[in-house]
Write a structure and sequence with these properties.
The structure holds 2 protein chains of 2 kinds. Chain A is built from 4 helices and 5 strands, in the order βαβαββαβα. Chain A is of the alpha/beta class. Chain A has a single domain, classed as Rossmann fold (3-Layer(aba) Sandwich), CATH 3.40.50.1450. Chain B is of the alpha+beta class. In chain B, the strands form 5 sheets. In chain B, strands 1, 2, 3 and 14 form a 4-stranded mixed beta sheet that branches. In chain B, a hairpin with an 8-residue loop joins β1 and β2. The chains are: A alpha/beta, B alpha+beta.
Chain lengths: 170, 429
């Protein structure tokens, strides 16, 4: 995986906390917030997500991918440089998901100065609050990497962001 | 003899998962099935044995687009069963949060999901490139609706501050007052968007619908009224199950609803508008006139215009309510549990959402019945599709498929609600 060492001042974890591996974004947001990072969980409503792009100049978004790659596979995408690959990120039922948010913001000139997307391949999107073991391992292994790249103002320990994030598998 | 099959395996730009199969033989429809294959979710069974006070929070999870409709219909039903009479201030605050839901739901559908059909765009991703100003306005309007829901409900989706009897906490007056300038802007923006949409080329289509909605002599209905139609139906909400019959069909996981005589009917913006046009503020009726609408609109493709007029109405109504806001005190009316039966019916963005509960003496739910708007609209959607297909046979399969999707989107169907939506298959046999 290329490691351009992106820096970010706002982390957005996209996903649904009750749909197993879809919760990996909110799970990471909770871990980063507990470590003092500016981080929020987001359900992925694209129309609302566009508004979040004005909250910081350097943003990193984590979301689950569903591309057929092995569970836990990591992608790092410079979203300012190019559109997200088709059919990789899960869409909301209204199809106004992350890709919609990024392309709408691009068309409207609302993209932040830097926008990186961290994709973590999911395995199970059924009902439940636990991440699959391979996805949990990949997410856990990424926490320190993310903390090293957070250059925003530490805000101290924050309450868990938004809806309750998924739990790592026991 | 020619055969033709049109398949639409997964409908886009609707809430939920469904499909359409049409088989034609010599330009006659042999089979037309609007298939909802999203799995049933058994909410009514889930409610049995739970405290009645849980019903609003549980049923709000039926839908992420119109949770307030479920909260309000469930709350009304439980309150009736428990003998709770809410205060005028609680009622006004409920109407205010409901305006937020109408604004965000209608704008999302009209501007981002339905407008691409009329603009010849393949999806919502293209609309920002083709019509950036439209999208900027739509996003701002949607944010306004979300903000209303956050200020009153605690968050934009699945509110946490609502409950049987009222609210956990009344919002501060200054938080409500802060909404006023954006609501003033929103009413004008919605009017401008309705007039801009009125210049779309609408398919030439009309049907003699039975429009069913709440009817209220005093106001454009959101929270309460009798259930009425343009064909003489006039019943209290407790009589709903006697007037409306639900049945199962093999090709759909959602129940189909018909009038007692077996006829399909329409709920939603066109029905509300037709049955309550005189209760709209003059500013909204003027917008409707300038957009080319009469007091009754029977072209379903023009539902996009009525939705935007209802957004204008919701902004104006929210403005009125915000300017006259008095924090309810107490924020909630309590009552001890008791056995009883209660009904609730409110106007979700897509039409009437009816709830009925039977409680035992401990206030535990013995039985529940929930009839969402898309279930009610399904038979009428199939009737519309049959009419649209037969009038569009000269279109090639791709164009016909697109026209059918557009006809379905006229209803802003919420399949997740209906299963408690679209593959299209056209078989030209």
């Amino acid at each position: 995986m290329p490691d351009p060492r992106p820096a970010f001042s706002l982390f957005i974890g996209v996903g649904h906390p009750f749909r197993r591996d879809d919760a990996v974004g909110p799970w990471l947001a909770e871990r980063l917030a507990q470590a003092g990072c500016r981080a929020l969980a987001h359900t992925g409503d694209g129309a609302d997500l566009v508004g979040c792009f004005g909250m910081a100049t350097d943003i990193l978004i984590a979301d689950t991918t569903q591309s057929g790659a092995p569970p836990g596979h990591i992608r790092l995408i410079d979203a300012r440089a190019a559109p997200l690959p088709d059919r990789t990120f899960r869409n909301s039922t209204h199809e106004l998901g992350l890709a919609f948010a990024i392309e709408t913001a691009r068309a409207l000139g609302l993209l932040p100065r830097s926008l990186w997307v961290l994709g973590i391949e999911g395995q199970d999107f059924g009902f439940g609050e636990t991440l699959s073991p391979a996805v949990a391992r990949a997410a856990e292994a990424r926490v320190d990497w993310l903390l090293e790249r957070h250059d925003g103002p530490a805000r101290g320990r924050q309450p868990p962001p938004g809806p309750r994030a998924g739990k790592a598998a026991p | 003899m020619t055969e033709r099959t049109i398949r639409l395996d997964l409908l886009a730009r609707v809430e939920g998962e469904g499909a359409l199969y049409v088989k034609l033989r010599s330009d006659e429809i042999e089979t037309l099935e609007f298939r909802i294959f999203e799995p049933p979710r058994f909410f009514e069974a889930l409610l049995r044995g739970r405290p009645a006070t849980d019903a609003p929070d549980i049923t709000s999870r039926i839908c992420g687009i119109c949770p307030v409709a479920y909260v309000m219909s469930a709350s009304q039903a439980v309150e009736q069963a428990l003998g709770i009479a809410i205060s005028a201030e609680i009622r006004a605050l409920r109407r205010l949060i409901y305006c937020g839901e109408w604004i965000q739901s209608h704008v999302l559908h009209a501007a981002m999901l339905h407008a691409p059909d009329f603009l010849g765009l393949p999806d919502a991703m293209e609309i920002a490139r083709a019509e950036p100003d439209l999208v900027r306005t739509a996003l701002r309007l949607k944010k306004l609706g979300n903000t209303l829901m956050e200020v009153i409900g605690g968050r934009a989706v699945h509110p946490v501050n609502t409950r049987v009897g009222g609210f956990h906490r009344a919002p501060d007056a200054d938080r409500i007052a802060e909404l006023v300038p954006e609501l003033e802007w929103g009413a004008g923006a919605a009017r401008d968007m309705a007039l801009a949409f009125s210049r779309f080329a609408f398919p030439d289509d009309e049907a003699d619908y039975t429009f069913v909605s709440l009817v209220n002599p005093d106001e454009y209905p959101i929270l309460e009224g009798r259930i009425g139609s343009n064909r003489g139906l006039d019943i209290g909400i407790e009589a709903f199950s006697g007037a409306i019959r639900e049945s199962q069909v093999a090709h759909s996981n959602a129940l189909h609803a018909h009038l007692a005589d077996g006829a399909p009917y329409m709920v939603g913006p066109l029905a509300r508008y037709a049955n309550n046009h005189d209760r709209l503020p003059e500013a909204c009726r003027r917008t409707a006139r300038e957009a080319g609408l009469g007091p009754v609109e029977r072209n379903p493709f023009k539902s996009i215009l009525v939705r935007m007029i209802e957004v204008q109405f919701a902004c104006l109504e929210a403005l009125r309510l915000a300017q006259s806001y008095v924090a309810p005190s107490p924020a909630c009316i309590e009552a001890p549990p008791r056995a009883g039966e209660g009904f609730g019916c409110t106007e979700a963005p897509r039409g009437i959402c009816h709830h009925g509960y039977v409680l035992d003496e401990d206030g535990t739910i013995v039985s529940a019945r929930i009839v969402p708007p898309t279930s009610q609209n399904q038979p009428q959607i199939e009737a519309d599709l049959a009419r649209v297909v037969l009038s569009s046979l000269d279109l090639d399969d791709d164009a016909l498929r697109q026209r059918c999707e557009q006809a379905i989107r006229n209803y802003d169907p919420c399949i997740s609600c209906a299963t408690h939506f679209l593959k299209l298959t056209v078989d030209r046999a």
